């Protein structure tokens, strides 16, 4: 069973937990989860796919669990989604219903709204869908164009959680704490579904501030590097985490000074892990293994990795030679929805995913991520954002003649989204324009109006010159 801790027979027989999930001021026991989520399942039965506005709330937890119980694939829609991005997700995925809160503009693009009632109960018993059934479609940005729907099977999700549980000695005794969004792999698949599979207590802190992490008294904490950077910046909050068992960082590179700061203040060397929406998490340092600052660890059980050089051949694993990282894993996605062309580009004929990351591997199999191949895929606060998607929106504004969007190094966010614009629009107007159309977290932090963009002899914008 994918959500093993929500086995109705076991829960009915007494395997309950009064505070299995704590989120947004609400506590849900396992029997609350089974009863209310099954009641959601009853209302969506027969749908081919539904959308869920993935705010961090009990409603979202029940909507997600209900879909997984019913075997109805879902699209988690970003909590701060804008109109154009939402329309694309709904049209491309063919969603037949909308679960959870209504969007801020109350526009459901014609979809029926399916309410999620926290106090409703159904004790109908559903059979477990087959492992190759789709669990969810998660939209993610590429370098250009609109976000693509990553199709994730139940098998891939279960395999990833189990491999991470083995690597981190994660058990039902843990209390897992995080404050990350529930519309990406990190917060949703690992954090929430991991907890519902393993059977540990799950606490969502709301905004992942150092104080909220300190107060939560967990044993296992997840964060993106920005969260850990802020924790280290508040030493008292950081010291409160010394009673935890394990701190885990992922979604972007953890700066070495932040790793060292966590060791100094909490007494814990963080475990770092690496992955992508398409492959799920594939490489991690282990609870009982070496935790080397700046390195992301070893392939998880069942995962193979390789480095490919300029000539297409494999490069040695000597800890120094850089290559393009490719991974083959039982946790692989089933392709991009409606985009066989993009799927074919992302995969090698022998089943490896081309990560787009550049890496080294040492003789012991430890991986260090050196950077990304393309400057057009930005990681800001752990969010993956395509420069092309933002550029397309900005070019749709009448005050913009030319634009180049880049990720500029940032101590807090890793990269900060900056748009260089040739035109006569007000910077704040353009920032708001992007936030209205796309998810708000994709809006540039800064818009710089310039006379011209740097171009090479071919007329192509030289983004590297804008990134310092
Ligand atoms: C933000 N603000 C802005 C702008 N951006 N104001 C004006 N213009 C802007 N461009 C505002 C915010 O609304 C907020 O306002 C205030 O500035 C602070 O924002 P920020 O610094 O962004 O802090 P934050 O809102 O607290 O966000 C930082 C964060 C967030 C919590 C770390 O970036 C985050 O949740 N990241 C997680 C992403 C993630 O889960 N990625 C996983 C992808 P106000 O204070 O008024 O509200 S899955 C993945 O990568 C794989 C598989 C993996 O490996 O895990
Ligand atoms: P996403 O699909 O949002 O999960 O983004 C995947 C990308 O995040 C990867 O291809 C990497 O570029 C980056 N990433 C994830 N984890 C790490 C990490 N621990 N260190 C460096 N980059 C990471």
Automatic annotation (TrEMBL):
Q: Which organism is it from?
A: Mycolicibacterium arenosum
Name of the molecule in the record: Acyl-CoA synthetase
Domain AMP-dependent synthetase/ligase residue range list: 45-337
* Superkingdom, natural source: Bacteria
- Family to which the UniProt record says this protein belongs: Belongs to the ATP-dependent AMP-binding enzyme family.
Q: Which SUPFAM superfamilies match?
A: Acetyl-CoA synthetase-like
Q: Which Pfam families match?
A: AMP-binding (PF00501), AMP-binding_C (PF13193)
Q: Give the taxonomic lineage as stored in the record.
A: Bacteria, Bacillati, Actinomycetota, Actinomycetes, Mycobacteriales
The AMP-binding enzyme C-terminal domain sits at 389-460
**Which InterPro entries does the record associate with it?**
AMP-bd_C (IPR025110), AMP-bd_C_sf (IPR045851), AMP-binding_CS (IPR020845), AMP-dep_synth/lig_dom (IPR000873), ANL_N_sf (IPR042099)
